[in-house]
Amino acid sequence: MSTLPSTPQSTGAPATGTARVKRGMAEQLKGGVIMDVVDAEQARIAEDAGAVAVMALERVPADIRKDGGVARMSDPNMIEEIIGAVSIPVMAKSRIGHFVEAQVLQALGVDYIDESEVLTPADEVNHSDKFAFTTPFVCGATNLGEALRRVAEGAAMIRSKGEAGTGNVVEAVRHLRQIKNEIARLRGFDTNELYAAAKDLRAPYELVKEVAELGRLPVVLFSAGGVATPADAALMRQLGAEGVFVGSGIFKSGDPAKRAAAIVKATTFYDDPKVIADASRNLGEAMVGIDCDTLPEGERYANRGW
Amino acid sequence: MTGSPVVGVLALQGDVREHLAALAAADTAARPVRRPEELAEVDGLVLPGGESTTMSRLAVLFGLLEPLRERVAAGMPVYGTCAGMILLADKILDPRSGQETVGGIDMIVRRNAFGRQNESFEAAVDVASVPGGPVEGLFIRAPWVESVGARAEVLAEYDGHVVAVRQRNALATSFHPELTGDHRLHALFADMVRAVN
Fold first, then answer.
1. Which of A162, B13, B151, B169 could pair with B77 as two cysteines, CB 3.0-4.6 Å apart?
2. Residues of chain B contacting A21 with CB distance shorter than 8 Å
3. How many beta-carbon contacts under 8 Å exist across A and B?
């Protein structure tokens, strides 16, 4: 190697798991699509289609709904197979408050942990202390207060909850609009009003003040829950999501490889209707979908977590 | 040249906003680039951090790869961080099948060389041609440079691995100055753009 003698050599101690390293990882995913996959083959299809990361789980949310019962962390073998199959980051889900599942996922070397309402909650009072981990966490939220409570617990990325496994984007739209509207309202407050706003939001004052100054969350905000088409993905980005999770929408459709690539394209060119139109042609059947109004209260995943 | 140079940030995916802010702080007119006609309008270009496989795939898909190669070969100043460094490498040690690069720096890079996210870290890094003490190096699933050719100049090493390289108008770092608020590397790049235009 032709290293010049003058090349500075740095050997300072590395600091792992810092807030910047955790949040910075999510910054790298912006503008991209994160896809649910249940095996190595699906993971490779997702990577080839241009996914920025995959979410490894045993059953996609649509099947969790169908099967019922308790939904838990996936089998470590299956997660390791997926880690071995692709070079993009691999995420996996722990139950809300199940910090031991999260410890296991960290030990397996996953790149991000989703403390997810799609799985059956393990604790009805507490979410996991996410500062206790080197692996960063993404958490779902339906409004700004919930998002900031998760950030206060150490979440390095936030996503809308939406209503996973329905193929219906209506709840994700509701949650994203809610978060954006509450941020916009904070922007209009003077400093006297921020203390009461923090109380109303049930979120730490420092975070509320930071959001009011930044005009956005202090961490990356993605959309999740119900995206089934390229236009759905572009809609979420036009509403302010910095990227999109797609769960059941790809591998529950007629032609997953084609639909996956089309959703990636529409996510990048979310503001170009011609590109979205081209991406939407001849994709085969979309997943069937569920009208969220017909979902009984007990089957609404977005109600899990607080 | 009069006024601020126009510097683009390849905006297919990744930490585009942070680069735009850092470039603006370095007194350039910064704008996102997603299309060949937008590329044609810039004096220099940043290839941001992100997922290198995704970015190269999207560049091919949207007809940007060849125009990018042409502009870089013709001497347009270009700066790549992390995934951007991988795109600027003439060769990837362990490419995904079909993974294309723009090239421009005579080097071989190893993707995710410092490990997965759990091994991601920050550390102080001294960089040649950046005065004022070490920069804060944020290494996120970062690559390193396995070897460089005679035309490339090594600007920094961390723990014995090459993490910053310059070859004429092309600059690359394994780490992400755009995430730290320290804009000295962007200032260095802005000077490179001004020197050419």
1. B169
2. 120-122, 138, 140
3. 163
